[in-house]
Amino acid sequence: MKAQIEAIRAAALEEISQAGQTGELDAVRVRYLGRKGRLTALLKQMGGLSPEERPVMGQIANQARQSLEQAIETRAAQLAGQALERQLEREAVDVTIPGKKRPVGRRHPMYQALDELTDIFVSLGFTVLDGPEIELAELNFDRLNAGEDHPSRDWSDTFYFDRDSRVMLRSQTSPMQVRAMDSMELPIRIVAPGRVYRKDEADATHSPMFHQMEGMVIDKGITMADLKGTLNLAIRKLYGQRTVTRFRPHHFPFTEPSCEMDVQCHKCGGAGCPTCKGEGWIEVLGAGVIHPRVLEMAGIDPEVYSGWAFGMGLERMAMRQFKIADLRLIFENDVRFLEQF
Ligand code: DAH
């Protein structure tokens, strides 16, 4: 019987060392040490032994059992270690492989110019307004003192939605002046940036859609001096303290007097060069003292209140700020262009 136990033990040890997976190892355990296992079966035969033999065999059998259990445990630990190693190998990350570059977007140059301007006017106490791009001709023209025969009312200049020319894509942000006067308490200090539309062919300086920023102040005792002071301050904050400006007389139906503001060319300092088309000056906005008729139509007494307003082209401001030569570049959104700002 001792030889039998030894044989079973040897066979079991061999199978344990061969087991390549935890499942196989369990099967070996069941085969030898289970209730119907080979070693267990042998032990059950011990009843047939003599009383002297029984304890001796019992001891040998127990030792065999213990050594097998020990071997199974050791092998199980080995297998677990190997499995962990394989998993670590599988999931290993090579930190030396170069990463994938994720391109980062940035703010469009036109919006950079707009943000800076907005900040300047907000710091001066102005409120920022937003308004509809689909506008009533009444607000875009009539309430701004542009009569029935005003040239920009023509179908060749303006996008209308209806035959009676009552609803249109706004051609300027100036109707926001009317919307502010109709809805806000006096005194009023607002800027209103947004898109405007005109039937213009796209070229280096024109686009059928572009952006303007409207500005308006109404209070008691407001004069042309306030207009000049505020606009000079804003432009110098934007372009630098030494920026030279000039105001030229002009005509707009909703202001009297009206003017255009020019900035001395940053390239040639006023001598004339390709950037300013030989003029020495670059026009940046239209402005003026609000026409008394416009105030009256909004129910504001021009004998008590007065105001000034301006409208600037935002693409033009960006073109000047970032030295961009062609307006179309601003709308094409070619990443190679946008990346430069
Ligand atoms: N709306 C004018 C335009 O599109 C610009 C303008 C001029 C706006 C004078 C004003 C202003 O508010 O006072 O050409």
List keywords for this structure.
341 residues, alpha+beta, seven-stranded mixed sheet, 12 helices
Please give a structural write-up.
The chain is of the alpha+beta class and 341 residues long. Helices cover 42% and strands 19% of the residues. It contains twelve helices and nine strands. It has helices spanning 2-18, 22-33, 38-44, 53-90, 109-123, 137-140, 175-183, 224-239, 292-297, 314-322, 327-332, 335-338; strands at residues 127-128, 134-136, 167-169, 188-197, 209-219, 245-252, 255-264, 281-290, 306-313. The strands form two sheets. Strands 1-4-5-9-8-7-6 form a seven-stranded mixed β-sheet, with helices on both faces. A two-stranded antiparallel sheet has the order 2-3. Strand 6 (245-252) and strand 7 (255-264) form a beta hairpin. Helix 1 runs antiparallel to helix 2 (22-33). The radius of gyration is 44 Å and the shape is rod-shaped. The model has no long low-confidence stretch (mean pLDDT 92). The structure holds 3,4-dihydroxyphenylalanine (DAH). Residues 172, 174, 214, 252, 255, 286-288, 309-311 line the site of 3,4-dihydroxyphenylalanine.
Which structural class fits the helix and strand makeup?
A: alpha+beta
Query: Mean of residue pLDDT?
Result: 92
- Residue fraction in strands: 15-25%
Got a strand count?
9
Assembly state of the chains shown: single chain
Shape: rod-shaped
Molecules bound to protein: 3,4-dihydroxyphenylalanine
What is the N-to-C order of secondary-structure elements (H for helix, E for strand)? Answer: HHHHHEEHEHEEHEEEHEHHH
How large is the radius of gyration? 44 Å
